[in-house]
Structure formats: structure tokens, C-alpha cells
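Quick one, T. Sequence first:
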Amino acid sequence: MRERPTPERLDDENPAWTAESVAKVGPANEVLPQIFGEQMAKEMLKPRGRPRVEFPKERINIRLSQDVITYFKAAGDGFFSACLVKYHIAAKFAR
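C-alpha cells:
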């Protein structure tokens, strides 16, 4: 179990927030350019992660018979991609 921090061990460079310091806080897009400059702030505020796609894929559950799974796994690594290609072809012909 961790010990509770004692006042002697608290970080002097990061003091506790006061009502006055909280009142000075603003949105990151307004404060960061003043501290780091426009270019660095723009880089820091850039959204992270994978970009949104126009038509995202949807997660579904599918149950396949063992012989279908064996057929596609026989193709080796990337068997699921091969399965997906077959589904795309089937969907084109079904239209």
C-alpha cells in the first residue's frame, strides 16, 4: 500500500491551485500560443489518432461453418482479407 504524501515531499515547483490561479486559466487554443508560439501551439492542438472516414466500416459478428473457415485459412496469412474480397465480389453480383 502506498504512503500518503507528506507536506514536506510536495513539489514546490507545482504549487496547489488557488481560486486566483484557476481564474487565470483559459482555453488551450488561447493560452498555448502565448506560451509556446503560434507554430508550436498549432502542432500541439492538432487532433490525434486516425482521421475520420466518410464511410466507416461497421463491426458485426458473423458465424461461419468450419468448412468455410478451413477453406479461407488454407490460403495462409491474410485469410480474412481474402474472405473480405470474396464478400465484395458477391455483393457486386448480387446488385
